[in-house]
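Why show two proteins at once? Because comparison is the fastest way to build intuition. When a single record is shown, students tend to memorize it. When two are placed side by side, the eye starts asking what differs. So, the first record is below.
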Amino acid sequence: MRTCALPHLDAADYRGHELHGEQQAWVEKNCYVDVWIELVHALGLNPYAMLPFTLGVDFEGDQWTFFKPPLRDMHTLYGIDVQELTVWRPLLEHAQEHLAAGKLISTEADAWWLPDTAGTDYRQQHTKTTIILNDVDLQAEHLGYFHNAAYHALAGDDFRRLFRAGEPHDPAFLPLFAELIRCDRLRRRPDGDLRDTSATLLREHFERRPAANPMPRFAERFARELPQLQARGLAYYHAWAFATIRQCGAAFDLAAAHLRWQRSFEGTSLTEAAEEFARIAQGCKALILKVARAVNSGRPLDAAPAFGEMASAWDAGMARLGRALGT
């Protein structure tokens, strides 16, 4: 039996949004924001409008903020309603009911069983990630799902193992965290109205920015941790880099993209602020490779100039944006 919320989607010819195009400094951001970009795109809506929240990212100590679009913003902009799904029975049973009603399900998943991660996680390591279920066929053992930068399909053993289908109930197995996504009251705003609504969110999220430039704290922590990164090797470094450099760079890549789309605020250009945030995105992209080489070789690395440039870009970008917003 097949149940599908958005039957027009086909993984074979799906074209992702330009925010996941090769022109982006960071093609993939993080698993949660990536699936939301693609779902909003697949619904025929504009993902650029939801990005002001990226201004609030901060260095949290052992990681940068794992940034997610606030669900309140999704409802305000697009009319998308998201609520936690109580997983009190097998997830496939929930999927059959809710997908048939036109609702999608966002859920945690093990990337080991996701063939779109071939070359990284697929059949190599167990990694928690987020996918959005759209199309489930129990008889064909087929799943159509959003993950990372596109819409994909899987089948067969991957389907059975992903959902633990056919296995006896294990009371010790904790239920997955999942969310129910209702799209029955979508708001398709005219472009001008969408920009105005997003501009209001831009001001709100600018007020949530870190109280002080987070780059110097990040630089100081990196200088202390580099010997440990080198001692533990590349596998440990890749996990560290995902939580730190990648989240920082990808967030400011999206912040720059949003400001370029928004273009101006009450007549004041946002281009200069966008360019400063793009400097951070590019700086992180260069840094992640430099540190990988230093970890692999064990050689010293003076990253202070790179961090200094990104700190200057953060100050300049926030100052220019603040002037544009009149704060």
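Second record. Ask yourself what differs from the first in the token line.
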Amino acid sequence: MGEGIAGIPAGGWLTIAGYALLPLAFWWHRRGGDRWALATLVFCAGLLRLGPSLDPCLHEWDERYHALVAKHLIAHPLKPTLYDDPDIPHGDGSWAGTHVWLNKPPLSLWTIALSLKCFGLSPWAVRMPSLFLSAIAVALLHALARMLASRTTAFWAAFLFAIQGHLIELASGRTSNDHPDTFLVVLVLAAMFAGVRMARSASLPWAVGCGVLAGLAFLSKSWPALVIVPVIVLFMYGSDVRLSRSLKCLGAILFAALIVAAPWSVYATTTFPEASAIAAAAHWRHFTVSIEEHGRPWTYYWSQLPMIHGELAPIALIWFLAGPFRERPREHAGLLFWWLIPYVVFSLALTKMPGYTAIAAPALCIIIAMAIERWSSATTWPKVLRVPALIGAVGLVLLPLRFSLDRTRPLAAAQQRYVIPQELVRASSRTVITNCPVPIEVMYHTAVVAAYDRSLTPMEADRVSALGYVIRDWRTLP
């Protein structure tokens, strides 16, 4: 990317525009123009995610792997591969060096493949589906918060989701688990919205819709999507629907989710049994083993919460427990456990990554938004508490905004983390590259069939040559 205008890259200007339009959304909200306020927030969310998405290079963890697998899915949608040719060396079966790649379920990868088919093999095309979904989720969260609370809480919840720095990083591929986690967050949110509608109307169509969305969430990130089930049960517990009707709706949810999610699970297990077993074992090892130096203490997610959601977020959560939840526990139990279940479960795992608790972000946004509404209008509070409450409400908005700016860095030019030699861009699909510092990126950006960060052994080289491939050493390229 060029430097743009005044030394600020084009993506930076888009990000600045996203922040600059936020006061307009607040102005519309104050005037009662909820639709215009929401439309502005969705537009701002799109700009805040589009700016960082214009980075010209794939990111190291884990976007480059997702991009390469998605590229291969264009040719064979039902066979996700990293190293596409099974006859050449492709590592030891680990997720970073394998032929069949089942480290993530396929939904986000299929969608990325479709984007690449439509827009070409550009890094920003990898990010477009996540960008779109993450922006639309602002409207979904607004609708859900409006049902659970009020129009003011709905506005601030949507505002907090739109500017949330970690969600922006996920959608723009800047942090681990990137696009699968974005799909998971949005689809879990959509399932919760459908579930609340179902709980309040005892509607079987909404129950089926909730189940379909739950199944799609499972196809995005596997078993973390199961958080939907207990939370929806708690939302149903807080409604006045008869038990027999609630059980029918719950059955419809589970059946629809199974119909959507089971076919791929059965297909992958039967078609790729060895790769499926390795992937399943790797997933459960996250609980028992510190993988790739991501072992952290059980307090990790709780200590990260003030940074991601603002230093005053813990106070807002304590207030929620002592106030709204204590006053109406049945009504707010679903919201409480939507936040708690991911934080408690993943705190027990030895391997901890920031994205694991992202599915709780919508619930946290609603809870914090409730505090903003109450604290900013604390006219019935004792006088000694009114000013601190107002300052706290302002802090609940500005502190996450500061973290968001720190994550997006609109004034910083995107780093050119790698350059693909033109000779490789023109190379044929019968080429294999050795001693390559960026093997995954090379395979994504070029027709090269395989690239390795090491030399091939004599036996491997003979095997590759016998298959008709030409071996080139990165170090000898002009």
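One difference worth noting in the second protein: The radius of gyration is 24 Å.
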